[in-house]
Amino acid sequence: MSNLDLRPAPTVCGGRADVTAQPVRELLAAKPVMLGESTEVRRLLPTMGRRMVGAWCFVDHYGPDDIEREPGMQVPPHPHIGLQTVSWLHDGEVLHRDSLGNEQTLRPGQLGLMTSGRAIAHAEQSPREHAKLLHGAQLWVALPDSHRHTDPAWEHHAKLPRLTGGGGFSATVILGELDGARSPGTTYTPLMGADVTLAAGTQTRLPLRPDFEYAALTMSGEAEVDGVRLAPGSLLYLGCGRAELPLRADVDSAFLLLGGEPFEERIVMWWNFIGRSHEDIAQAREDWMTGTRFGTVGSYEGAVLPAPELPPVPLKARGRTR
């Protein structure tokens, strides 16, 4: 997934100083952003209120969109460093192609996990023949300094562990571990992500780790999370210090639960790059524009996505929250 903003704001985040160390209910507003020519997404991280939840540092929610007579998602080849991308669908298909030679069609309930490490390029498109609806989320995970120069890699997991409970609760563990169920996806920091489904009339409590901070993104319906009713596309930051999370739904609902140990390091995030300094970002941009380091998405027909101009002043740290 790419950040297609032609004037991306430099964002520096991480560190524990601004982590909310107790339970909170902080509702964060989404920012509408066009992804290519035909897909509008709701950007929920980073926002004016918060930049990270654990190592999760970028969250886009899109759809459900009727693309029966539209091209759907069309994101040309673009670069990444220092992060992992997580592709998650509720409806539709997305074709992933990257500079390692991987080509994979992702479908609902399947994990597409790309580790950029030192450098990778990829493209994402709705297949030529595609389903009527497109609905999903694209997320980034910041890599710690010890792993941000690791070899790039692609993982596709068609089957993921599921939790079920009485009263209409179920959850698919996308990354990390939840209530004893662990995803096969590779992680580099303590974190978790799960797709939680609540049938109408469900009322339950989900066990959490008090040392993790959490947030909930409603995908469909109107789940009630810790007493806060969430419309689709809403992100509720929950803070730390929770041993369990009260859940309730009057209609069939689904939401993503994201959590992790507060990220120790301060990072610079600009466009599709995560580094530790202005120099990291400037070098990555130059390498992309000169055709070095990232390789090519060989099976893609068309032009690559050019990088925006860097801001006129050096990128500086500003903390996890605004």
From TrEMBL:
Gene3D superfamilies per UniProt: Jelly Rolls (2.60.120.10)
A single GO molecular function term of this UniProt record: metal ion binding
Binding site for Fe cation: 78, 80, 122, 124
Top-level taxon: Bacteria
Official protein name in the record: Pirin
The protein's required cofactors: Fe cation
InterPro entries (alphabetical): Pirin, Pirin_C_dom, Pirin_N_dom, RmlC-like_jellyroll, RmlC_Cupin_sf
Keyword Metal-binding included in the entry's annotation: yes
UniProt entry keywords in alphabetical sequence: Iron, Metal-binding
Domain (Pirin N-terminal) ranges: 40-141
Organism: Streptomyces zagrosensis
Domain Pirin C-terminal: 194-292
